[in-house]
Amino acid sequence: MFKILPVILAIFLSLYNLHFFDSNKNNLPEAIENKNPRNHLTQDAENRQEVTAKVLSVSEAAPKNLTINHTSERNSPSETAAPAEEKILRLTWNVVPRAVKYKISYEGKHAISYTNGIEILVKNSSSTIQIDALDFDSKIVEDEVLILTAEENPPAPLTTTEFDKMKFAPLFLVYSWVPTINADHYEIQLFKDGEIYRDYVTDFHPKDDNFDFYDEKPLIEDGDYFWRIRGIAANGAVLTEWSEQAPCNSFKVEKPARFCALGDSITHGGGSISVPPSTVIYNWQNYCSLPIKNLAKSGDTTEKMLNRFERDILPFNPEVLFIMAGVNDYRSDIVGWDSVTNLAAIRDKCEAYGIKPVFITPTPLNPPLIDKVNFVHYPPYDWQEQRKYICEWIKEQEDFIDIENALSDSNGFLRADLAIDGLHPDGEGKKIIGRAVENWLTNYLNRE
C-alpha cells in the first residue's frame, strides 16, 4: 500500500497542474490579482528563463502586404460577448507615480489591475466605481483616481504606448495595452510604410500579466510605423477586432540621431515594477529638453552592449553616445574588471568611429528592497566593491556624468524613496538622471 502512495500522489499533482479539477479555468470576468507579479522591467536572460519564457511564446511571420482595415473578424456575440444582463466596461486613468497596481471597486466587487486600464463586467455602467492606486504592500498611494474614459463593450483592445510623447521611438519597442476580457493570448502586428513588418502571437499566463510585450529585435530601418493588436480565444478563434491606429501607437524612425543613449533597463525605461518602458514618466530621456535616441535594451550586460555596437549604434551615427552600464554585471557574478574591459572597448569603438562617449555612473542597488519584492536574485556580497571599481574607472574618463551621490543613501544603497524594487529608479530617480544629462549637454553645446 505504502509503495503505491507516491504514484497516486504524482498522478494527482499532474492533474492538478493541468487544472483538471478547476471548473472555472475559462471563466475570467475580471483581473485576478497575482500575489507576486513579474517585474516587467527585468528582462534579463536569467529572469526571462525563470519567469517569462514559461509564459511567453512568439512566432514571427515574414513581412507581407496587407490592406489595412478594421472590419470585424470576431466570433458571433453568442460566443464572446458578456452575459445578457452584464456589459463589458473598459476604464482608463492616468498612471499614478509609484503605484504598482490599482484596486477597482464596483457593484460590491473589486478587481486588481497592474496597468492604467481594465475591462470589467457590470450590470449598470453608470453605477459608482472607485479606483485606488496602491503600492507594493497594497497601501493606498492615491485614492479615488480620476477615471478618464469609460467605454461599453469595446470592440478591440486599447493600446497604451506613449510613442507620441517621445522625441524618438526607442530602438527596442515595448508594446502595451489594456487586457481584454476572456482573451487567452494576442496577435501583434507592426506596420512599416503600410505593410506588415512584424507579426507576433503571444501567450501569457497568469491572466492579469498580459499587458505588455518586449520586442527582442531592434528597429533600425527608416520609415513610418504603427502597431496594432487583437485578442485571441483559447481555441485560436479571433475574439476582437484590431485596435485602431492612433498617435500613441504611431511613430517615425529616422537617421541620423545626434545624441543617443546606450544602456540596460535603467535607460530603456519603466518603473514601479509594473509600468513598462512604453510610458514616458519613467524614461530619463523624457526629462531632457534635447532629443536623445534610446538605444538601450533591458537586461543588457556590458558585454552584450559591446557585442551589438556595430549593429545598433553605428546606423544612427551619433555625435554623442551616453553610456550607462554595469548594474546587470555587479548584481550577478561579473567582476568589475570584466565590466571595465567591456566599457573600455566600447569607448575605443566610439573613438574609432568619431563618436564622443559620455559615461554615466551606474545606479546602486538596495538589497533589502530586492529581497522584499523577490523579483531578482539577491546581489552578491561584494556588489558595492565591483560597482566602486566601475565608477572609479568612469571618473577617470574624459567625459562622464556622476549621479552616484544623488541616488545613494547613507549606506551607499539606492535610495528607497526612488526605487520600489531596489533596482530600477522610479520617476523622481529618472528625473535626477535626465536633468544631470541635460546639464552636461547644455555645457557641451555652450562650448561649441
Plain-language structure description:
The longest helix has 21 residues, at 427-447. The protein has 448 residues and is an alpha+beta fold. The protein has three domains: 27-33 and 40-75 and 156-253, Immunoglobulins (Immunoglobulin-like); 82-152, Immunoglobulin-like; 255-448, SGNH hydrolase (Rossmann fold, 3-Layer(aba) Sandwich). Mean pLDDT is 85; it is low at 5-37 and 43-80. It is 23% helix and 22% strand.
Which helices and strands, and how do they pair?
Blueprint: H1 5-17, H2 45-52, H3 77-80, E1 87-93, E2 101-106, E3 109-113, E4 117-122, E5 129-134, E6 140-142, E7 147-152, E8 158-159, E9 174-178, E10 185-192, E11 195-203, E12 212-214, E13 223-232, E14 250-253, E15 259-263, H4 265-268, E16 293-294, H5 302-307, H6 309-312, E17 320-324, H7 327-330, H8 336-352, E18 356-360, H9 367-373, H10 383-394, E19 400-401, H11 404-407, H12 427-447
Parallel strand pairs: 15-16, 15-17, 17-18, 18-19
Antiparallel strand pairs: 1-4, 1-7, 2-3, 2-5, 5-6, 8-9, 9-12, 10-11, 10-13, 13-14
Helix pairs in contact: 8-10
Q: Keywords, please?
A:
Immunoglobulin-like, 23% helix, 5-stranded parallel sheet, 12 helices, Rossmann fold, alpha+beta
